[in-house]
Structure formats: structure tokens, C-alpha cells
Amino acid sequence: MNEQRLVETFFKYVTIDSESLFEREFAVELAKDFENLGCSIHFDKAGEKIGGNIGNLYCTFRGNDEKESIMFSAHMDTVKPGKNIKPVVRDGMIKSFGDTILGADDKAGIAVIIELLRRIKEENIDCPTIEFIFTIAEEMGLKGALNLDYSRINSKSGIILDVGGKAGKIISAAPGHVVLDGTFIGVSSHAGSNPESGKSSVRMACEAISNMKLQRIDRETTANISGMFSDCATNIISERTRILGEVRSLNPEKLEKQMNHMLGKIEKACKKYNGKFEGGFTETYKSYKYPEKDEFIEKLRMACENEGVDSKICASGGGSDANIMIENGIKAINFSCGMEKSHSLEEEVSIEELKKVVNILVEFIKKNLKKS
Fold first, then answer.
1. Is 77 an annotated catalytic residue?
2. Catalytic residue status for 310
């Protein structure tokens, strides 16, 4: 394992700004690195569709055609504040200087993936054709994955490096997700001289929200109202109030039940105050759950054990590009890449864990991919 090279690559990547929709500079540099390693390169038009400055990146490394091709994937964008990141090493941990995120989500995954390819080439490993897919705008609701050109991807299975935690963590299930966006509509009037004529949309929203079951609903389901917006002067009974929220569940039936519960409270509040509601829920992605002894997961788990790493199979509370890729026919498994405290100024990644993930994936490529 070339530890210095792995760390230097990670440092290089996180110091190139790539907040969501502004991934171009980083994507171009990443494409050059993979092209120098013998990959064919392609960008799609996803950025144009969603208002970004670059599309998703496809890098293909031609291998043994007698073996089934496989995909490795990570996302290129980072959350804010992600400009002028200054990584430092303290006691074997890479952290940011403290005024930005680190960007390990998901550049730890990308650094692992390119080190995997370097190892394959240096050790002359007999590998299948590998498709490396790097998406944009994952942090904005998986928009890159939603706009991938799946006709360009031949692999039927793949590993996504986009999970926090120690090496060996395997995500076997993830929730479906819906977003609530709607507006309560009442009647405006002067709050001082004629309040009786008003129908307060704010009052409707507060009534509905206060009667909703929110946050942790059960072991598989969560719900949240993230905001309520009504821009009026204090002397105006507000005509329109917008609310935003979400529901997540590993169980599609529970997801629908919670949606209906929240819509029922909205309807009841509107009826009470003689108003109405425009909007509703929109699906972002569907849930998935792999069988307990899924063959692909067992191969990855065995690679962990062969490298002396304990595997941990668990469900996630959030979605990832895996949700979208699975809907499009790719058996995508999300695998940890050592990052911790993502989306915070305390974000960090262990150098030792990064090395373990690379070693596991090298072992996986060497021993666990069958011939077609």
C-alpha cells in the first residue's frame, strides 16, 4: 500500500472546490487522472439539465472480457461550506482546518477508487472491465444519478463508496423518500382594523403541523417539517404560507401511511379555518432491501474477512445514488470509505481506514468476480 500517494491524492482532490452544481474544475482534473491510467472518458449532459456547469463522468478501464464487468461509483460534489478547504493530519486523522467541511463525503470514496485502479495496474491484476461513474449534485437529491445515461453503463452490479463509518460497513437497505412542498391559502385583511375578515394561512399551517406525528415515527420511518414561510408585515393577516418537509421509510406501506396522516392533518386544518392547500408530496427515490444472504454482499463480506476486517451489514437512514441505480437495473451496494461526521466542520477520515478499504476492494477484485 502506497500510503503517501493515497493521502496526497485525497489532499489534492479536497483542495479543488466542487460544491454542488460547480463540479467542473474537479471533474476535469479527475478525468485527466483516469485517462492517464488508461481509461476512456465521457461526460454526459446532466449538468445542462439541472443548472450545473458539468455533467456526470464515465471512465472505462478495459479488462478481461471473459469476466463480468463491474461498476465503482462516488459523487463529485460537496456540501457547503466547501470552498478553500485546507486539510491537515492530526494523529492519523485527516481533518479540515476548521472553517470548512473536509469534503471526505465523497472524495474519500474517489481517492479509494483511483488507488484501487493504480493497484490493479501495478500488480497486473486480472480484472474485468471496470466502469467508474462519478456523479454530480448527489447532495441536492441525487440529481446526477437521476440524470445518468444508463444506456452507457454495461455493468449489472457495482459498489458505491459513499457511507460513513469504519471499513467493512455494508448497506443492505435504504429508505424511500418523499418531499412535502405546499401552500396554505386563506384571505388577507388588516390585522388591526379588520381582523375578522381575514383567514390566516399561518394559523392553518400551525394547526396542521402541531397535530402531526413527526421525527421518529417507528424503527423504519421518520418525518420532518423543515420550514414554514410567510412574508407579511405584522399588520397583515397572511393569505399564503408555504411549508416544506419530508418522509422517509424502509417500508413503502409505512411511507404511504405517514404521508396520508400528514395530509389528513393539513386537510383538517384547512376545513377548520375555511382555507385550502395547494401542493403535496413528490417522490424523490424508492426504498430498497437486499436479501439477508445476497450473493454479491456475501462476496464483499468475504473480502473484508480475508483482509482481517469485521464486516457490518446494516440499513441506512438516508438515500444515496444506490437508490436510483437500483431502480435502473444495477445491483448497487453502498460501502463505507472511512469518513466520519459528514456535513460538519468536524468532518474527518482515518488514513488507516482508507487503506483498509483499498485493500478490501483489491481482494474483492482478485478473488470474488466470476467469469460470465
1. yes
2. no
Considering the four listed CATH numbers 3.30.2280.10, 3.30.70.360, 3.40.50.1820, 3.40.190.120, the one that applies to the domain covering 176-285 is 3.30.70.360
Segments in the chain below pLDDT 50:
372
Write the CA distances from 32 to 59, 145, 152, integer angstroms: 10, 22, 20
State the Cα–Cα distance between residues 215 and 271, nearest whole angstrom: 25
Distance, in Å, from the CA atom of 124 to the CA atom of 221, rounded to the nearest integer, reads 46
pLDDT tens track for 201-251: 999 999 999 999 999 999 999 999 999 999 999 999 999 999 999 999 999
pLDDT of residue 246: 98
Given the candidates 1.10.10.60, 3.40.640.10, 3.40.630.10, 3.90.1150.10, the CATH classification of the domain at 3-174+287-367 is 3.40.630.10
Q: Which of 77, 105, 139, 348 is catalytic?
A: 77
The C-alpha atoms of residue 148 and residue 150 are separated, in whole angstroms, by: 6
Distance separating alpha carbons of residues 167 and 333, to the nearest angstrom = 14
Residue ranges per domain, the chain? 3-174+287-367, 176-285
Peptide bond into 81 cis (omega under 30): yes
Number of C-beta neighbours around residue 348 at 10 A? 19
Which residue among the candidates 44, 115, 131, 138 is catalytic per the annotation?
A: 138
Question: Which pairing describes strands 339-340 and 215-218: parallel, antiparallel, or unpaired?
Answer: unpaired
Which residue, among 324, 334, 333, has the nearest Cα to 149 in the 3D structure?
A: 324
